[in-house]
Structure formats: C-alpha cells, structure tokens
Amino acid sequence: MPKKFFLLTAASAVLAGVLAGCSVVQINGTHRTDDDVLCVVPPEYRTAEVHDALIMLLGRKGFQVRELAPGTPPGACRQTLVYAWRKEQYWLPAVVKQYGIDMDLYVDGQYRANASFEPTRNLVSPHVKFVRFTRYLGRVLDRLFPGRPEVGA
C-alpha cells in the first residue's frame, strides 16, 4: 500500500510540475540595449487598449517610441518591435479583460527575439485570470529588455 501511494504521489507531482511549467509569459531571447529609439509596427487591425498599453510601457522602460505603419518592414529602424494581439478574454465581466500578445524583436533588420503572453496557457494557476493585462505585458517587456527600468512589478 505505501508503495502505490508513493507512486501515485510522485506521478501527481510530476504532472503538476509539467503543467505549472506552461507559463503564460514566454520569452525566446532577450535584448540588452542602450539605444533609446524603438520602432513599433502594429498589426493591420489593432485595438487601442493593447496598442496604447504597449506604447505607454515601452515609454516607461525608457524608449523613445516611433510608431510605424502596419506592414512596415522590420529593417526600417535599428530596433523594431512587430506585434500581433489575439482576441480579448473576459474573466470577470467588466472587471478584468486580458489579451494574448505576440512580439518579435528585430535588430538591424535581423530577427533577435520573440516574447508572448497567453493567459489561457497555464491550466493550473487560475489566479492569472485576475491580474491586469498591463502587469503581464510589463513582465514580458521586463524579460525581453533586461537592464532597463522594470515596469511589470
């Protein structure tokens, strides 16, 4: 009996660890920079909430943001952030609204890093549903651009 209990407990712990690893924030590469100019290329169809929050947080990180037209090639600026957002998700009607966002960073026209926030990715942490989108977006930017002021606290 203790052996079965141990195996069941171990299997549960492994499964919980795997599911907990499905973080809502994913970062594939970072960019440490002293260059303060960052160009942003929005998607063709954008929502003001996502775009304004991104521009505001990039400003707080110390970037002088140049907004470019949708479809502008990433080589138009030395540092270019191209983003796309996914459908908004409501967790508590009229209280918390979140958006999935995916960002690609290019330096000198070359792909450098990808960062994303997907609130439905983590199946075992329901508290994610109650955290403001701007806080998670700030955390994504903090990890994407280390060494600059933190905005996701």
Topology, please?
Blueprint: H1 2-20, E1 25-28, E2 37-41, H2 48-60, E3 64-67, E4 79-92, E5 96-107, E6 110-117, H3 133-144
Parallel strand pairs: 2-3, 2-4
Antiparallel strand pairs: 1-6, 4-5, 5-6
Helix pairs in contact: 2-3
Features:
single chain, 153 residues, alpha/beta, Rossmann fold, six-stranded mixed sheet
- Output the radius of gyration: 18 Å
Spatial sequence of strands, sheet with the most strands: 1-6-5-4-2-3
Number of helices, where a helix is a run of at least 4 consecutive DSSP H or I residues: 3
Q: Low-confidence runs (pLDDT<50, min 5 residues)?
A: 5-21
- Give the terminus-to-terminus CA distance: 46 Å
Strand content: 25-35%
Provide the CATH top-level class.
Alpha Beta
Number of domains: 1
CATH topology: Rossmann fold
Please state the overall shape, judged from the principal axes of the Cα atoms: globular
The total of beta strands comes to: 6
